[in-house]
Amino acid sequence: MDVTLSQAREQWSEVVERLQHGEQVVLVNTKSRQAAAMDRLEGPEPSGPVWSSTKARQELGALVSAAQTEPQVLTVGGRPAATVSRHTPPRNHPPQPETTTGVTGLGDVLDGLLETEPQTTGLSSGVPALDRVSGGLARGSLTLVVAPPNAGGSLLPLQAARAAAFDPEQPVPVLYALSGVPLQVAARRLIAAEAPVPYAQFAAGTLTPEQRQAVVDADGRLRAAPLSFTRPEPTAQAIAEEAARIEDLGLVVVDRLQHTRADSTPLSGRALPAAVKTLARLAAERQAAVVVLLDTDDTHLVEQLGADRVFHLTRPGGGDTARITVTARDLGTLAAVEVALDMTHLRLLDQPTPAPAPSTASAPTPVAPAPSPAGEAVVPSPARRPARPGRRPTAAAPRAAGKGSATVAKSSGTVAELTERIESRVRAVLAETGGEVAEAVAQLQKTAIPDVMDLLEQSRAGGRYDFRNYPDLPDILHKRGRQDADAIWEARPRWTAPPEILDQLGDDIVTALDINGAYLSALKAHLPIGQLEHHLGPDEGGPAHDTKRSGVHLITPPDWDHPHLPNPIGDREEPGRIWVTESTLRLLLRLSGPKYGLCERPLIHESWTSGSTEQLLENLRRALAQARTNALASDSGEGEATYEYVKAMYSKLVSTMGESNYNRDLYRTDWMHIIRSQAFANLWNKAWQAHQAGLTVVRMMGTDELHLAGDWRTARAAGKDTPLFPEGREVTEVKPKQTYRLEKVAEDSYREREMN
């Protein structure tokens, strides 16, 4: 990738992303005619001047100039990430066309257009009705197939591969590139469609004798088909290299591009535009048709990829019909057809019923109904897949126009769509595993990180803040060594009431309560959304604490003189100043205020803060909570799988958003600490409420464990008739994990006696 300095500044996040994928980036200073190559750091950290990502972006000219004399080191998030060294571009120039003049006559072009036997012919898409309106798959060009989730978009590339490789008269060599799809899954899909046998039974190993015989009968043509698979998770360049080895290659199928970055998947995230360019170049050089499946129909991304032609597949009403809209980059919508879906065998069946062409020029954007001559509306494909039949809509009821009404409608609609995506993903994996819940759960847990990042990106559609454009963080938020933590204290509790409290229990029963979805609830926290800025605290002459900002703070915590309640600062024995998160500081400030009056105000010495919001993860949090609620109400294998899937997503999101090799799309150690501390603060609040209701707090442990003595089931919050601790598995409820009595065995020593 060669970029000018101005291009690099504008696309710095993409530059860093490509470096992390191992791609070389060449910075070209067009004024000084100097160039520097940036390469991912593979070995030990080299010696040389160190540039942070932020500094490098601001002073790219100086970086390129410095690289002419000695290698420079680029750090990302405080860690060495790349070397920057002098680059000498090749001096060869592309060959110029041998023409005596710079113009061509129309007649010369016309002669070529009227040739009776063109040099190349297109390939069939496998759907005759689509071929009639699109001309099939043109050799030398790339066709992008887009579809909303679970609409059946993967069937179209699959159909094209079958039509080429299994052509009984003249089979065409096909290269099938696997990205995000296991080899066995792709092979089963091809065989199920070609044999044909029911895919779900084939995947589950429950074919009948007749169906097994159908596969045996197809064995000869399956083995003879000129179809090859790439190794899993190839780069676009690797696909091009494999294609160069196949003689008379006619078709390349790429299944699939993933719009959200996934670990160990080069064809994902911000690498997609460059990958599509490489694949388009492959199509032109080999005069092969290239069909690429994209796992979303997001309009902005489709336009960014810039394919010459797009096949946009939708599934009106979630029924048995697919609508395929054909668009060209410069011409807009050309035509649309509707064909039958055979989801049993994973095929598209020809159904030549041309659909009215939408009036818009944008390929994947849903179109409003156009009136027919008779005045009736022509029903287009829906913008979103509807909710499952029989489920109560989760969108908010219509309200009068006014302040905030549009926001509510948009938010609730987004939550409903995200919830449906979660549940559709579970159903798809269950179908692949033949209904084996344990196998489906294991597969879903493996993809929980990229899946939740995909949901986060969808939940932020239309938002002004790009969560992936993470800023550099101060040193206190970086680990001080491989085995050491950073400087932030999360106030994690590990507290047991002192003897003067435990001695009063006698034979009282203690119940250990499990607080459901602690980290899920903690996603609603004040998160900083910009570059953290350093300033002195109010006790060192700086500004007062600003509730519109968030970050981390160096404080001297107040003394705590309440033996019946845990210290809100957590299990900390060392005195003196500590760095705490916004969540902990806000809890301490509340407890020192007039409402509680439990302690002195903490002294704030320094702060790293930025403007903040509580809404950044709100749509994602609500969607995960709704999917969890639906799963608990389901009482089925699908519900069990969904419950475990949701749990894996929110827990792994929190644990990998810091310094983690498992999630390269989000690097916000400050968010991780703040969310964890919010979970601990939420738990402390429950302990306080229990104490106010007359219960004795015996222990408070971790993020979600609260041990209480007393009748917790009948406890009520002050001034309320509802139970303080309703029992159940919902996020707002608790589960009793254990009941016991404490038996004093020595001075200040107790042991638990389990209750049956």
Task: Give the helix/strand layout.
Elements: E1 2-4, H1 5-10, H2 12-20, E2 25-29, E3 34-40, E4 50-52, H3 53-58, H4 60-67, E5 72-76, E6 79-86, H5 106-113, H6 128-134, E7 142-146, H7 155-165, E8 174-178, H8 183-194, H9 199-204, H10 209-217, H11 219-224, E9 227-229, H12 236-244, E10 251-257, H13 272-286, E11 289-294, H14 299-305, E12 309-314, E13 321-328, E14 332-342, E15 347-355, E16 370-371, E17 377-378, H15 405-432, H16 437-446, H17 448-459, E18 488-489, E19 494-496, H18 499-502, E20 510-515, H19 518-522, E21 527-528, E22 533-536, E23 549-556, E24 578-581, H20 582-591, E25 603-613, H21 618-634, H22 637-656, H23 669-692, E26 696-701, E27 705-709, E28 734-746, E29 749-754
Parallel strand pairs: 1-2, 4-5, 7-11, 7-12, 8-9, 8-10, 10-11, 18-24
Antiparallel strand pairs: 2-3, 3-6, 5-6, 12-13, 13-14, 14-15, 16-17, 19-26, 20-27, 20-28, 21-25, 22-25, 23-24, 23-25, 26-27, 28-29
Query: Overall pLDDT, averaged?
Result: 82
Going by helix content, strand content and strand pairing, the class is alpha/beta
Oligomer: single chain
Q: Please report which band the strand proportion falls in: under 5%, 5-15%, 15-25%, 25-35%, 35-45% or over 45%.
A: 15-25%
Low-pLDDT ranges:
91-101, 115-120, 352-412
Please count the beta strands (DSSP E, at least 2 residues each). 29
Evaluate the radius of gyration. 31 Å
Shape: globular
Q: Given the structure, what is the number of helices?
A: 23
Can you list the strand order of the major beta sheet?
A: 9-8-10-11-7-12-13-14-15
- Head-to-tail CA distance between termini: 68 Å
How is the biggest beta sheet arranged? 9 strands, mixed
Portion of residues within helices: 25-40%
